[in-house]
Design a protein that fits this description.
The protein is mainly alpha-helical. The protein contains 8 helices and 4 strands. A two-stranded antiparallel ribbon has the order 1-2. Strands 3-4 form a two-stranded parallel ribbon. α1 crosses α4 and α5 crosses α7. The longest helix has 21 residues. The chain binds flavin mononucleotide.
Length: 158
């Protein structure tokens, strides 16, 4: 696993401690992720990476080719990971995995994400997915009386 390179020694120690805590939480509290052998690490820039290490069983499931896991099936793992780390970190969280609608984006936002990333749904549906997701998200927020997305960040935590 690669640790992020930081500024001073104090900052590196704090980052390393946070990283260790994130990894511990992820491994302890995401049984689905554990089942698939996923693990959380940091890349050179300090970004969180959810990795799916080589697994002969999954390789078989993927038809003998190497690949990643994305789309709606990955959303419960992603939302759970965001929910679990929300109270523990002091940085904005980006929700990734299975965002294909405004409601799916809101699951991440309510769990604590400040933004979401869209991969599979973009490939499947084209650029229109951004307007579709944004429109649905704004319409749901308006219906329930929220003035902005930022007001909804983390509301699932009460
Ligand atoms: C066409 C495509 C290309 C991707 N390329 C990369 C990549 O270069 N690096 C990376 O870390 N993840 C890559 N991903 C993974 C996405 O960043 C994301 O983690 C994953 O697809 C889960 O989100 P989704 O359910 O919205 O697809 C790619 C995904 C897709 C669908």
């Amino acid at each position: 696993m690669t640790r992020p390179s930081g500024g001073g020694a104090g900052e590196s120690m704090a980052t390393a401690k946070r990283t260790a805590e994130l990894i511990r939480l992820f491994e302890e509290r995401a049984p689905i992720a554990r089942f698939f052998g996923m693990h959380l690490s940091y890349n050179e820039e300090g970004g969180a990476v959810v990795d799916l290490p080589y697994n002969p069983n999954l390789d078989h499931a993927l038809g003998g080719i190497h690949g990643g896991l994305g789309g709606a099936a990955s959303r419960p793992v992603g939302v759970r990971a965001v929910y679990d780390i929300y109270d523990r970190v002091d940085v904005p969280i980006i929700g990734v995995g299975g965002v294909d609608s405004g409601m799916a984006a809101l699951e991440y936002i309510m769990a604590g994400a400040s933004a979401v990333q869209i991969g599979t749904a973009l490939v499947a549906g084209g650029l229109g997915v951004f307007e579709h997701v944004t429109k649905e998200m704004n319409s749901v927020l308006e219906d329930i009386g929220f003035k902005s997305v930022s007001e909804a960040v983390g509301v699932a935590h009460g």
